[in-house]
Amino acid sequence: MQAGKSSSDLEQEVFSQDLCTSCGACVNICPYIKVVKDKVAVIEPCGLTEGKCYDFCPRTLTDIAALDKSVFGKTRTDYSLGPYISIEMAQAKDSEIRCRAQYGGVVSALMKYALETGEISNAVLTRPFDVALMPSSVLVEESNQMAECAGSNYVSSATLAKMNEAAKQGKDSLGLVGIPCQVIALRKMQSSKHETGARGVKLVIGLFCTWALSYKGFSEFLKGKVDLTKVKRIDIPPPPANVMVVETAAGDVKFSLDEVRKFIKPTCGVCYDMTSEFADISVGMVEGIEDWNTLIVRTPAGKKFIDKAKKADVLNTRPLEQARLEHLKQASSIKKKRAIDAIQKRTNDKKNLLYLRLNAQEKRKYV
Amino acid sequence: MVTLELDQPGKIVLMMGDEAIARGAIEAGVDFCASYPGTPATEITESLARVADRFNIYVEWSTNEIVAFEAATAASLAGLRALVAMKQNGINVCADFLMTVNLAGTNGGLVLVAADDPSAISSSNEQDSRSYARYADLPLLEPADFQEAKDMTKWAFEVSEKLGLPCIMRSVTRLSHSRGNVKLGELPEKKRTAKFEGIYISGAFAAAQHAALHQKLEQAREEFESSPFNFYVGPKKARFVIVTSGSGWLYSREAVAALGLENKVVILKIGTTWPLPEKFIVEHLKNVTEILIVEEVDPFLEQNLKILLAEQAKTLGPIEVYGAKSGHRPAYGEMNQDKVAQALASIKGLKTRARDGKYVEKAKELLLSYIPIRMPTFCTGCPHRASLWAIKSALKLDGRDGFVTGDIGCYSLGAGPAGYFQLKTIHCMGGGIGLANGFGKLDKFGFNQPVIAVCGDSTFYHAAIPALINARVNNSNVLMVVLDNGGTAMTGFQPHPGSGCDALGRPAPTVEIENICKAIGVEVRVRDPFEISQAVQELYDMLQESGPRVMVFRRRCFRIEAKEKLQKKYYVDQSKCIGDDCGCARFCSRVFNCPGIIWDQEAQRAKIDEVVCTGCGVCATLCPRGAIMVRGVAS
Fold first, then answer.
1. Using CB atoms, which residue from B396, B420, B585 is nearest to A46?
2. What is the CATH number of domain B383-555?
3. CB-based burial label for A129 (10 Å; 0-12, 13-18, 19+)
4. 0.80 cut: is pTM over it?
5. Chain Cα centroid distance, residue B602
6. What is the C-alpha separation between B323 and B329, in angstroms, rounded?
7. Residue B354 pLDDT more than 60?
8. Domain locations in chain B as residue ranges
9. Most buried one in A253, A342, A367, B341, CB count within 10 A?
10. ipTM reported for the complex, 2 dp
11. Which residue has the higher pLDDT, A237 or A214?
């Protein structure tokens, strides 16, 4: 990691370049950096020359090989999906969970199991539709508090800010569900030299993510079309539909995805990670199958937990067909390639990959 | 018994200049006083309010100066004696009424006290209000000491009644706010009853009225020729004369004495500076070859005197005039004895015994080795600190380079470090929201910065409402933040229409800010700035909206709150504060910068200064370690 970089550098290199992912890693560790909705800002330069905020950020120097080593103990051999132990399809056995969930309900089922068995004492989750479409990160102690946290929103909340707050309150043995940028930041925190509550996170479930929308643009866009307080679910059906479906109490509303794409956060364009490569377990959709998830087990801790959950009959599983796996790998590779192109366009320099440090093999594949 | 009430004619008492003015009004049998608070005039009305019941005076704090002046004029029209007092800026607010009441005339004695603040010690501008007298063709008196402050006020009512015009009296900070001996006069027996008769209309015959006004002014000049407030001290046949008025009188006497010129220099002291007592002046300038004019701020006396000298050139012959124009006196800032002495010495070729030129620098150097540099700041527990931190945070989070237009009140300090340099404009009362109106309509020229207009509660009632209505009807993109601390705090917490009490402290109806906003039709929210994270979020949300919006940050001035209620006592748990290891870089004592938080050099930890902490608790919500704790309730 780079030494001697401060909140002012973070402001210059990340915030002012529209690269902030709103992950919240830098929030609630000092009095200077604050988040409202999905906007993070340095309210006042703290004057220190070196800051945790800079080191934790998923858009400051991120050495993929070094992170591989610290999370998995070895570097990757799969340059599409990152390190993993197994991939399969899964769904929550509990149909009630599946009913509320976006797809197969795997994340809800696993977090519920983790809380109930004491695997973790608290979970940092996201309530997808809190106030007028804005999701909020919440700290959940009892599994019965989880109901409102099912489902997806295409706006992200500052999950790690909530994690930092929980750590300040002395919570450890935390579970966390996050999107790739949040997982990367969490791992950077855990592997940093600094004191951080992130070490108390014991179980990380990463979500697949292609992009997130900026709250301001997206909510203003939707405002005239639907009652923001009545949104129940937002979904993007698989191609070639090219639509976004917003389900409300008053019925569904469809938009062309092209209209929505305008509000994709600029930082998502430089994101190298679709499948939350540094999570213990990654979960996403299976294209074309509504009530199942793709489940990637990555770390030994993740495997141990999934094995227990399977034994406890929490999940239904079935193999992921080779064609689907290839399709997933391709999608992930395309995201990486696009990210590299976007970065090179930003830097106007083939060799300057901004925050990304790739190993030689990856470079050969994508650069 | 307060000194003001003493019924002991001839007794000499120590009085503040403003109190002396109030006593003069009492001795004149004043019936009615309406004012808006403003330094250095505030204590005149406060003094009268204290004895209002004893002398059967009606006293009110009006919503603004023009309303006060109009209300006081009504009393005059009904045959009563009325006084209205204000700082220099207030005269500007009154100007529209002033320029018609001069033509329409008055009945009972009406005295307008204009208290100027040279050097703008507690003001947003420096202004010499005397020019208003010349502009409006009204008589002007300038008291030069505390005795005159009392006696001239009494006389001003008589002048007003004789002429049927308001009489303007000009005070300055050093007179209004310092104390000196005053020999008391008799307390009158008041017998006036109010009855309105006659017609007071300006406009229809304005030109004829203007001509009549000029005649009244000539009548005033005649009156002034024999005024005891114009006099002459020094040798009989001096060639060098200091002509002075107001505070210049005492400075001149001191300077003449300091230079040992008592036998060579004459001081001609003028108390009635508009219109000038021309005969009196010409009489005393015969055989004079040099004049030094000593007055405070504008060359008002100087210019009028020069006109007189030109007119009398045949009688008086050539006279050298020293003053502001010649560079012997600055036409800005407060006067003092040194400035007069330096002027005298340079004219006379003497060495002054005034302090040497580097005195101030040397004194600073010496003092700063003992005293840390301290910028002006908000009191401990001041809600404005929290409000401005919330505004700063919301604007920073918004990220569109938003800014704040400021207004007049304690929160004007928000232009400096106390308010994190947030205020980018400050003009007159109501000027902030007025400016914001315009900024909020620049979108078609590519302007996309959000604008926040801050405004105090008293200022809201005083001058902000027309601008807010304007914002509403023109749909201007402006977020107004009313910093409502429950009173006119900067001048000493006088009541305003939202306070629920009158100038005498009796219960009064309230006019709610949010009801006014609702009636105007603008969105209004009311929040407590001490709940800072909520305040930031809501302000951020409001910044995302367009059109006119109002956020009322309501929290009572803590200096008042702390006196009224027991407050929580806070301390830093020094085992939780980890000092420089925290990474907060001493946020509480360095950046948030409340004077109640200090740095404990020995422990290398933050510490609460319990002597000044008022227990607002805002710092406790901001400390990243949660190290600032409540101990209980202070007694």
1. B585
2. 3.40.50.970
3. buried
4. yes
5. 43
6. 5
7. no
8. 3-188+202-225, 231-348, 383-555, 566-633
9. B341
10. 0.88
11. A214
